[in-house]
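Loading example: each entry is read as two labelled lines plus one structure line.
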Amino acid sequence: MSSKLAKIEKRTAYLLILPSVFLVFSIILFPIFSNIWISFKNVELKDLRIPEPRAKKLVKSINDNPTQIKVIYKLRNSSLTQEITNVKFKDKYPDNLEPTNLDNRCQFKSNLLMCKLGNWPKKYRENLEIVFQNTNNQEISKKEIKSYKPKLSGKSQNILLTYEFTLNNFKKVIKDKAFIDLLSTTFYYTFFGTIGAIVFGILAAQMVNQKFFGRTFMRSVLLFPYVAPVVALAYTWELLLDPTSGTLNNLLINYQIIEGPINLLGQKYVTLNILGFDFKLRLALTTVIIFEIWRYFPLAFLFILARLQAVPKELYEAADVDGANPIQKFLNITLPQILAVISILFMIRFIWNFNKFEDIFLLTGGASGTRTLPINVYQQGFSIGDIGMGSAVSIVIVAFLLIFMFIYFKLLGKRADEN
Amino acid sequence: MKIKNIFTYCLISSLFLFSLICIWKILVTLQGIELTNFNFNKLFTFGIILCVINLLIGKKFNLNIKITTLALLFSIFDYFISINLPIWYSFGIFLISLFFFNNIKNYDKNFLSKNHSSQKLFFNFLTLFGITLFSFVILFPFYMMLVTSFKTQALLLLNPLDFSINFAQGLPELFKSYFIVFKDYNFGRYMLTSTIVSLGTVIITLIFAIPAAYAVARLNFFGKNFLSTSILIIYLFPAIVLVIPLYTIFSQLGLRNSIEGLLIVYTATTLPVAIYMLQGYFKSIPKELEEAGIIDGQNWLGIIFKIILPLSLPAISSVALYVFMIAWNEFLFSLMFLDRPNTFTLSRAIQFLNVGAETPRQYLMAGSVVVTLPILIIFVYFEKYLVSGLTAGSVKG
């Protein structure tokens, strides 16, 4: 009896999870694996369009003879790179028409014109001309003939499904001189974005954890940048930071803090003089990181606040009795309590910042030294149009991601053991 | 009383007052009023003097009288060093200084001679300062988004710092950018598309996720542990690595430029987190309730519909809101899959506005307000649900 129940339970369970598993598999896991396939192929954006046989139908009347009409089909292979095999052609005609000069590839049967046009090499073009005669010697209506559209079909090889592979994409990725720069930009962006978000998250959480007027409102406000659409925020920032008409530059000039406008999003380096030393700061990248921090510290704040509110009040009271000062209280009570949250946050944010695409794309488009790996996927795949290269860069990202995840789950497992 | 404490007290409080004044001055400048100097030296010195006076008076007088007098003194001083400013500017200064002196009214000689008082002071001000600064930094871009949408390109070129709203021009003129955005740029249609896509994603995700989450939470089957860990791992895979294969597949299947394609992708990408959040909640429902249901002769479907669903409405609403937010804000896939304007979502439409021919910025910002406002209203209204959704699902972002 119980084994029967268990069987039913099992069957129900599979039934319940199957739709989700199927969907997730086909839209998430399958693409990740097909990335590997594509990355070993020489595919470009223009190859993705499946080659199609096309025909343009022109109808011309013949001089002095309204009972005859000439139809011209301008045939062509839509692909510039691939051939189409076994092209078939079909078109319909009104009643009482007879072709006078039928091409030997074609047949005319019961108002249907059918042709077997064979194989078309790439860039193939041909004009097929047929003259029709009305069998009742009546005038032919051009309009009626034009109203039918020819149908063509043909077989073509899908470049994605061939078994030709190449290592060129990976060679290009690794040999690219900018690759090291790309990696360092990505890590720079990821690391400082994550650290910044966590530091500001701690500060904000510390503040909101105290009682003051408008605290709940403050908590909502702090989450605004995180919940608002990135498109709107990025463009607002772009307008704020614009060198000529941006509010920030105009304000700074107005208050005589700077002399000329600074192109915060368009300038790669800025030289800072601190204590007589010249520092080269990557300006655009820093601006993008600041946007990143501004947008994602609310998340760190939310996590840390939740943890802070769970810290027993007695700990602080005991510290007060011992005469600890606020800094000591923070270092010895608060920090150890939130350390676990911080480490998990760090890992998660690190992974996500590593893959961040929208923010940089919308702010700078990857220009002026802000090109990270995800931006490179887009640029290779869609700006340059080399799908294979884009996939290869995706694979690099996935490889890094797996390493991070391995570390993350090790860390998580260790925490679970400790508890 | 220690000299060091007095010194820190004066320095920090005066600096705090000065920063508050700075924020106020920036906001005033953006109303198109000419103000080119923060007057750091004068205001800072006078602030220190007033702080010392505040300390000396201590609690000898009625505190309300004390703070009002000090605030008045400060505003009069500011009025005399700055020229030709409207009266509401000075009134703002008065309110700010009132707020400031109200905060430091309790500091006197006794307080400063206690242990750690300078550190306590420092932290008090850090909190206050932090709250003001954080709210300013966060709200400022939103504020600019809103006021820019009420201006015109010509006025902004004339004086890029004048964001004052002219109410005298009448409402139709004021909301002109919004009318244009909806009429000429077709934003009504985009908004409809965005709403359909987001609501559709929520509904389909829930239909898929609730049974799956129930199975993971409650039923025993082979591969259960594997499934629940893989949910998390799959969730960590970013959209950018899916984009190229999905683009190629969708191009060949003809699913690009269609709402259906977008719905499929959004549902698949939000499913893992929805399942993860829901199964956690389902586990917290007492098993006895379901056992009672089984005794009453309910099948699994009945259990889900009659017992689990009514009990987990809060969790379901937070998942629904979270998924709605993700779908509404989503940008990458809509950029990749939609290139015909009649299928655009709001996010994609705004990006199209920006990339396309020189769109005047007030239209761009009006569009941004149109896409931002619904989500902020939903967020503020359903904050409780959304925050719990965010915390549970915020591994992604």
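Residues 3-148 of chain B form one domain.
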